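G.,

No rush on this.
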Amino acid sequence: MAAIIEFKNVNKYYGTYHALKDINLSIDEGEVVSVIGPSGAGKSTLIRTINGLEGISSGVLDVDGHDLADKRTDLNKIRRDVGMVFQHFNLYENHTVLENIMLAPRIVLHRDEQENRQLAEKLLKQVGLLDKEEAYPRQLSGGQKQRVAIARSLAMKPKVLLFDEPTSALDPEMIQDVLDVMKNIAAQGMTMVVVTHEMGFAREVSDRVIFFDQGTVLEDSRNPQDFFEHPHHMRAQEFLSKVIDR
């Protein structure tokens, strides 16, 4: 598989704060990568650089053949191809569920209206919410809103889908429905980078687990089962001992 995302000696500063430290990562097409680690480690900053929501301070970040550090790179094109599912949904409250999904493809891609509606309805069916197409976000639970947000990202037919702690704002009983949708997307071959606190998802669905702390990659395992059973880095051992019962 060819690499679709490559970090080469990437650094990110906020003033004097060194948020990302000499990151070297290569993510292949079709890979499902879970990024785990303690809060404040820089995980969200890491994935927000992939679609240009955060700029890098130095190094090279190549996404689908485009250098994001090059001022000539069209970040809007990158964001069309690299979808993002946020922690807090970001749905348009004054639009129905169906319109939320159809809006970006209509404005950005100028997709044919009938084709746009058919795809939106297909995606709503995929996330189990076709019966909610005329509902407004305020009428949905948090888990339902997040599934709509996922469908909205898929409607752009992205090459990569980023998830920034997609279940952390949800009530516990709503988390599994969202995780099931994510598992389904992963099974279809989508390239996914997932910042998550859901260790079960990282263990069962990921092709690869990256343990991140203090702005750096401490472990990068292509055998998630082995990582969770035998983490090598002491910081990873300490983290896992607190978050899961192994």
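When you get to it, here's the other one too:
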Amino acid sequence: MIEAVIVDVIRTASGRGKPGGALHGTHPVDLLATVLESLVGRTGIDAGLVDDVIAGCVNQVGDQSLNIARHGLLAAGLPEHVPGTTIDRQCGSSQQAVMFAAQAIMSGTHDIVIAAGVESMSRVPMGSSALGRDPLGERLRARYPEGLVHQGISAEIIASKWGFSRADLDEYSARSHRLAADAADGGLFDREIIPVRVRNADGESVDHVIDETVRPTTTAEALSSLQPAFAEEKYAHRFPQIDWKITAGNSSPYTDGASAALICSAAKAAELGLTPRARFTGFAVVGADPIEMLTAPIPATRKVLQRTGLAIDDIDAYEVNEAFAPVPLAWAADLGADLAKLNPRGGAIALGHPLGASGTRLLATLVNHLEHTGGRYGLQTMCEGAGMANATIIERI
């Protein structure tokens, strides 16, 4: 089988996903174009050789409608003959884009693919694509007559099922901010973050290069004062085990951002004089209970480990998306994973979760961490809406 490698992977710094956030004034097409242009410029590749651009985006409506991948690559100045397609696997959309890109290369269909992701949650709020419509239909409602739930309730169910206390969740969340702040102070994000030209509050044109969602002074004590965000009587009646622990502080914040990876065959990289940074070792994608919803990273990880013949202890770093604090904690508990290897530079609770861009964001952080520490294998996995998850294992070159 043809070997697929990562030549480079980059991201924007996070922006708060609401009006007034650093990236709110940047149209998502322009945000995606910025990472695509930077990726081509950094690698020096002839953009005309790119076989496809595959971009993840969840809320494909309004500013993000009509195939933002195609719009983004044209805005970036890529040749018109380069195609682009936009995919939605909810929070794992750009991780799936990476998987599709690598599979196209491994099959021999393509030689060079850019996998990317973008989400402007400040301009296209979460759920906008279903606003005023019924996204489920009668037959799906008939299969789940008690009704599907939103992710906040799923996080509450997981916290109760695994027995995590409010203190457990808040302490883990404070850890995320502390690790992210330490990584930023140590310059550990410098290689993955590319600048986005924005206007600050004073109207000056500046480069946005610092994650706006990280709060360095966050403590578990401060987080403990926040009120539960999802307490509703209808859910309390349906799920009496829930004791309401999920808050804005132990959840990922609304975020704007974009990210992209240049993926090609090892042979093509050698031909073009490109130096790969990592290779793909294995992939998995699974479905799970759409009520618990956020537990699918557990079977996805088991599946990818089984397929690759690796054990959890063989992996040097785990990037498990922190949609809510119970997700990585339940994952680690079920798999017996070393917490010291889990999101070692902080996770989405601190660094943000720009939905469609998060998959390639995690990949950027993982590749850079392996290079910095000399680790060999890295695993990333992400819970996804309606009960799905992707898992990917890479090997540093």
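The mean pLDDT is 97. The chain has 13 helices and 13 strands.

Enjoy the weekend,
O.
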